[in-house]
Specification:
The chain is of the alpha/beta class and about 450 residues long. It is built from 17 helices and twelve strands. Helix content is about 40%, strand content about 15%. The protein is globular, with a radius of gyration of 23 Å.
């Protein structure tokens, strides 16, 4: 049997509390990883792990350990921990978890089992990162999420491909769009629908959670459709709707490469509503008791709906091959976020009054937007909610500049180190020509955006 010789922290030096050993329980599950620009594959692993227990502790490796064993990270440890904390199936994050999973670490935090996908993860010496827990009989395997990996996403960034785009999510789910035979397309559509349903589950991963709607008549990319109606709005997943007295909150965006910028914005929205609730007595003991007695459980003051734009809409405004993730992939990323209660797929770029009035839960009490815009428009996108008196802007925050474009730039700046990381894994590098092509396309897209804004100012 292999011997776990990793240094074990002493009391007072564990990265997060508790500092005392926790009794080991089969209901407490451990999962660990890099979680670098966290995608829905990571969330899928956490979902499956959460379904095996009642608590999920997520170990997050340090930047230094990942560099020594795998290569450079794209996101910082702070950003990666924020992504883990935002996942609705995560109970606790444990930063600085050892790269080679340690029995004393998982035992200290009271976890009987470690969960990992059915792929092999090795350390710098080429040995299995899970050898100690496997030898101890405390290792469980779940299915790796198909069709997504960090390597796939970086390839899309550097090769500027658009083959991942989805023209119509409705047609794709019905098997009318995509490659392969009719039977293959239908099978893929059914699997995609199942995965949307799975990711819409609640914090246990076992019960209905978020509701999912699809607006099949997407607004034109120009965003000039002022007569939007939601008569084609279809509920894809039945979940838990708003509770009595909850405020209806609407946010929208592309949510491409769902990152710390998106997550912090959504967290700030949640905090803003909680602070408002506190001022209005939502958390008073008598109010909490009344809700529990009348509805069987307590709940928060806000019901947050996220509108997600089509691939075509995002590409119209951002160019190159944005979005890096298609609308299906982005929907899974948003659905796994604990701050979201419902999703509207293919939401229009401009939320007009008619659109907002016809939302499935009624006109929202508030429409939030972040401190920056990553898709410059010649229109005031939020003119309608402003005129309706329901617009609210979240202030500056630490991650406000982190979005898909920033992540692409980080990849380009550290390309040589990333190429070495890929070579270690036996994968083919991208090459300098592809990088130069990406840089030129980014420059061309920026020029187009600047021209649009200048032309709009001249026409005013």
């Amino acid at each position: 049997m292999a011997t776990d010789t990793l240094e074990v922290p002493t009391k007072g030096h564990w990265p997060v509390d508790p500092q005392e050993d926790v009794p080991i329980s089969k209901d407490r599950i451990w999962i660990d990883g890099c979680f670098d620009f966290s995608h829905h594959g990571h969330a899928g692993a956490m979902l499956q792990a959460r379904q095996l227990g009642k608590e999920l502790l997520v170990g997050v490796h340090s930047d230094e350990d990942i560099m020594d064993n795998k290569g450079p990270t794209v996101m910082t440890l702070k950003e990666r921990v924020s992504a883990v904390d935002a996942c609705r199936w995560s109970t606790h994050s444990i930063p600085y978890a050892p790269y080679v999973t340690s029995l004393p670490w998982i035992s200290h935090y009271g976890c009987q089992y470690v969960v990992h996908g059915d792929d092999i993860t090795s350390d710098a010496s080429g040995e299995d990162c899970y050898r100690y827990v496997k030898d101890a009989g405390r290792f469980l395997v779940v299915k790796r999420t198909p069709g997504i990996s960090t390597t796939d996403l970086v390839g899309r960034m550097l090769l500027c491909t658009k083959g991942h785009f989805i023209k119509s999510l409705t047609d794709t789910l019905l098997g009318k769009e995509g490659s392969g035979s009719v039977e293959e397309r239908k099978s893929i559509g059914l699997d995609m629908t199942r995965r949307i349903t799975d990711y819409a589950s609640d914090y246990t991963g076992l019960r209905p959670g978020a509701e999912v709607w699809n607006w099949s008549t997407s607004a034109a990319s120009s965003g000039n459709n002022d007569n939007q109606r939601l008569n084609d709005l279809k509920k894809l997943v039945v979940g838990v709707g708003p509770h009595p007295d909850q405020r209806i909150v609407y946010v929208d965006g592309g949510f491409d490469l769902f990152s710390s910028g998106h997550i912090e914005f959504l967290r700030q929205v949640s905090m803003s509503e909680e602070e408002r609730g506190t001022r209005n007595g939502w958390y008073d003991a008598s109010a909490k008791q009344r809700r529990t007695e009348e509805h069987g459980e307590d709940y928060g003051p806000a019901f947050v709906i996220a509108g997600i734009h089509d691939d075509e809409v995002i590409n119209h405004w951002k160019g190159v091959n944005y979005p890096i993730m298609n609308i299906f992939e982005r929907s899974l990323c948003v659905l796994q976020c604990r701050y979201i209660h419902a999703v509207i797929l293919s939401a229009p770029f401009i939320p007009t009054k008619s659109y907002l009035d016809d939302l499935p839960y009624g006109t929202p009490n508030v429409v939030y937007h972040g401190p920056t815009s990553f898709m410059p428009s010649i229109h005031d996108v939020y003119a309608a909610p402003k005129e309706m008196g329901i617009y609210c802007e979240i202030g500056d925050h630490d991650f406000q500049t982190v979005n898909a474009s920033e992540i692409v730039q980080r990849i380009l700046r550290s390309r040589e180190m990333y190429e070495e990381r890929q070579r270690r894994k036996g994968e083919k590098g991208i090459g300098e020509e592809a990088v130069r092509r990406r840089e030129q396309m980014e420059s061309d897209a920026s020029r187009v955006q600047e021209e649009r804004i200048r032309d709009a100012k001249l026409s005013d």
